[in-house]
Write a structure and sequence with these properties.
This protein is α+β, with helices and mostly antiparallel strands. It has a single domain, classed as Coenzyme PQQ synthesis protein D (PqqD) (Arc Repressor Mutant, subunit A, Orthogonal Bundle), CATH 1.10.10. A hairpin with a 2-residue loop joins strand 1 and strand 2. Helix 3 crosses helix 4. The radius of gyration is 13 Å and the shape is globular.
Length: 93
């Protein structure tokens, strides 16, 4: 599971946004605002983490149930897939 290149993660004030760069600027209309969970997941979309591994890490960090963490990861990945931001439709089902 990997995010497409062409996006930069930036801290803006107390928030985090994904900013499209290069050719992605044409594809995207604006920035994507991330909450802390979204930022955590995005930072692990490097091709070396599975959705299950990310969910397990969320459990450790936020003390939520594995089911809740897995649901959050899958929802976020589905949103990214709908936006065309994941390589090869890499969202978990």
């Amino acid at each position: 599971m990997k995010a497409k290149s062409g996006f930069v993660l930036r801290e803006v004030g107390e928030g985090t946004v994904l900013v499209p760069t290069g050719e992605r600027v044409v594809d995207m209309n604006g920035m994507i605002v991330l909450n802390d969970t979204g930022k955590f997941i995005w930072e692990r979309l490097d091709g070396s983490h599975t959705p299950e591994q990310i969910a397990a890490a969320l459990v450790d960090l936020y003390e939520v149930s594995l089911d809740e963490a897995a649901s959050d990861v899958n929802s976020f990945l589905n949103e990214l897939e709908n936006l065309g931001i994941l390589e090869n439709g890499a969202a978990a089902n």
